[in-house]
Amino acid sequence: MDLDINLYNTLSLKKEKFKPIKNKKIGLYTCGPTVYNFVHIGNIRTFIFEDILRRTFEYNGFKIKHIMNITDVGHLSSDADEGEDKMTLALKRENKPLTLKAMKEVADFYAERFKEDIKNLNIKMPSLMPKASEHIKEDIGIIKRLERKGFIYKTSDGIYFDVSKFKNYGKLGRQKKIASQKYSRININPEKKNPADFALWKFNDKLGWKSPWGEGFPGWHIECSAMSTKYLGQPFDVHTGGIDHIQVHHQNEIAQSEAAYENPLAHYWLHGAFLIVDQKKMAKSDGTFITLKDIKEKGFNPIAFRYLTLGTHYRKPLNFSWKSLESAQKSLEHLYNQLLTISNQPIDKNKIDKKFKENFLKAINDDLNIPQALALIQKLLKSKLKTDEYKLSTILDFDRVLGLKIKENIAPIKIPREVEELAKRRESLRKEKKWEEADHLRKKILELGYKIEDIKKGYILKRSEHMVR
Q1: How many beta carbons lie within 10 A of that of residue 112, not counting itself?
Q2: What is d(CA 391, CA 396) in angstroms, rounded to the nearest whole number?
């Protein structure tokens, strides 16, 4: 069953039929974290959207080479090349010496925490996660190409890209005028020829690497160009990131890469919308910083956060609240419980319902319409025309894209005999309407590490810890 994939391309500002460069093979580059702190759930929403995109491609039979960078140097506190390097700020925050060794220690720590978050959220690991600090040679190589072509100039603090020499600067999302207006309001380096010119290399004789122009470190933007081109070639198929990357970071990637190699950088650009808290975009600076660790410490299942994000289209803002997360967890638990009642059915890939699968494909292939795809699950479960075997096999097939860990959470668990006996006695007491005695046994079951959930036909026993397995 082949259906066209249509994706909203920020380059053209419209949905386009997806056409890979190579048949059934896709090069995907996703902007990864700057590992100077824990990743917040606003960033995580973007990583979940990118995971859904990858899973959608794979569901359609494509093979993916997925590159996600780890930024461990070069990302300044302002995207417009102002302020200190974020990794340097992390060293100061954690009272570490200003050395490359200490920087690596801090970066490695937060990179590992990020990988733990990925695992907890059932996000597929990228094919490769290259580190910016290990690609200095490639950064210098691109800057040399740009130097030969006349795109760079030197100031007292670094090497800059002259955007006036790249006629299509700002073409992503047709941002030319918007970008110019934004930069005109920034307290810019007076040595810049143009307000939007950006750093390719920043000088620093105390911390950095040697280069033909002086000791220092690469700009944030050149790092992504170097790593994407090295591992995917140029052009490659799809580049993604958060919507906040459109105006500066991705414009700069396009300008330097296309100026250096005279080819498009990527054919399709996809961007995820913000996660909003208290009417503000989530950010470390304004107190709306929430991590996956915070979610887990409040007793929530990380997959419940994934479920929450899937209920809103990736291009629409998502308003986060603890109440909405609680509602998402209840909905996820309800789904697991519904499927537990039919989990004894055999799973057979030949028993996947063709009509529902076709509708699921139409939804996900329509610019990742996951809310519509999710709605099909309840429609299928309520259908009286489909057998339980078809329902289970079809929904587990859908979960290849949704990533809700359904199979793991409806698999049988070994319940101790003592707990089973208590549950049976409680059920008898409930039938006799001895509610107080029944509730006493419920609490005793909970003390033993299990919880009992009542359903129409009896009850379900589950481990009382987080539902993720």
Answers
A1: 11
A2: 9
Q: Which amino acid is at 111?
A: A
Q: Which two tokens stand for residue 110?
A: 């937060």
Nearest partner of 299 among 78, 128, 468, judged by Cα: 468
Q: Where residue 460 falls among pLDDT bands split at 50, 70, 90?
A: confident
Tokens of 158: 């670094």
CA distances to 217, 252, 338 from 220, rounded to whole Å, are: 9, 10, 47
Q: How large is the angle between the packed helices 370-382 and 388-402, nearest 10 degrees?
A: 170
How confident is residue 346, by pLDDT bands cut at 50, 70 and 90? confident
Q: Which of 71, 69, 73 is nearest to 29 (CA)?
A: 69
Rounded mean pLDDT, 323-351: 90
Checking DSSP bridges between strand 63-68 and strand 25-30, what pairing results, if any?
parallel
164: tokens are 């006036």
Q: What is the DSSP string of 37-103?
A: SPPBHHHHHHHHHHHHHHHHHHHTT-EEEEEE-BB-S--BSSTTS-S-BHHHHHHHHTT--SSHHHH
Phi/psi at 100 (nearest 5 deg)? -65, -35
pTM of the model: 0.88
Number of alpha helices (DSSP H) and beta strands (DSSP E) in the chain: 16, 15
249 touches 241 (CB < 8 A): yes
Which pLDDT score, from 0 to 100, does residue 285 have? Answer: 54
In 127-253, DSSP assigns E strands to 152-154, 158-161, 198-203, 216-218, 236-242
Tokens of 303: 């997959």
Which DSSP state fits 197? Answer: -
